[in-house]
Amino acid sequence: MHHRLRARWGAAMAAALTMIAVPLMLAQGASAETVPPGGFTCGVTVFADCNQTAHFSTPSGTAAPEVALPSPQATGCPAWVAVDALEIQGTGNGVEHNIFRDPGDGTQTETFTGTVTITAYTADSSGNPVGPDTSVLPYTGHLTEWFGATFKNMNPIVDHATVNFSGTAADGSTFSIHLVTHINVPTASVAPLNFFAIGQC
User: Fold this and answer.
1) I need a surface site. Which of 30, 50, 57, 145 has the fewest CB within 10 A?
2) In this predicted model, what pLDDT tens digit does every residue of 40-49 receive, in sequence order?
3) Whole-angstrom Cα distance, residue 86 to residue 63?
4) Nearest in space to 164 (alpha carbons), one of 183, 141, 148, 186
5) How many Cβ atoms from other residues are within 10 Å of residue 75's Cβ?
6) pTM of the complete model
7) How far is CA 189 from CA 8, 30, 192, in A?
8) CB 39: neighbour CB atoms within 10 A?
9) Contact by Cβ (8 Å): 144, 178
10) Other C-beta atoms within 10 Å of 107: how many?
11) pLDDT tens per residue across span 122-172
12) CA 85 to CA 6: how far, in whole Å?
C-alpha cells in the first residue's frame, strides 16, 4: 500500500478511535481550501471542521521515494514480490481531498497516476527497505493508485486502496501487478477485524 497513504490513514484511524469515533471525491468541493502538499493538515493533524485539497506531482508527494511493503498475498508473481519492499520514484499528477466534521466524521481520498521506476529492496521483518535486491532489475512504467476512507462516529470505518503498475526493465522483461486492500472496523472501539489484501501479477 502507498506509504504516505498508510501514514495518513493510520493517523486518521488513531484520531477516530481516540474520539470513540470515501466515497470517491476526487473533484474539489465548493468550499475546499486548496493548499500545497506540505500544508495539508485536514485528516493529518486536524480531524474536525476542515475541507482541503492538494495537488502533487510525485507518488509520495515529496522528493523522497514512496515505499511499498512486500506483497506475500499476491498470486502469479515473481518470488521477490513476496519478500522485497519497493522504492517508487517518478512524476505524474496526484490530488488529495479530505473533509472532516465533528464528532469524528470524515472522508479521505487520494489518487496518483504517472510514470515511475520501481526498485526492489531486500526488507527487514517489518517490510522496511534494507538494501537494493541486486537480483531484480528496476522496472519503469505506468503507475495508478487510489485510496479512499470513510470515518463515521460510532459507525464502521472503511478504507479501500487499489494499485496498478505495468513496466519494463532494461533487458526487455515486463512486470505488472494489481493490488487491492480493504479494512473495515465494525465500531470505533475495536481493532480492525475485517481486512483483506489481494494481488495478482
Assistant:
1) 30
2) 888 888 877 8
3) 16
4) 141
5) 10
6) 0.78
7) 20, 33, 10
8) 11
9) no
10) 22
11) 999 988 999 999 999 999 999 999 999 887 776 677 888 999 999 999 999
12) 14
Domain of residue 155: give its range.
3-200
199 close to 71: Cβ distance less than 8 angstroms:
yes
In sequence order, the 6+-apart residues with CB closer than 8 A to the CB of 6 are none
Instruction: Give the largest CA-CA distance in the chain.
Output: 54
Would strands 50-56 and 33-34 be described as parallel, antiparallel, or unpaired? Answer: parallel
Where would I find the H helices in 54-177? 80-83
Query: How many whole angstroms separate alpha carbon 18 and alpha carbon 20?
Result: 5
What are the grid coordinates assigned to 45, written together?
493533524
Q: How many independent structural domains does the chain possess?
A: 1
The helix/strand/coil state of 82 is: helix
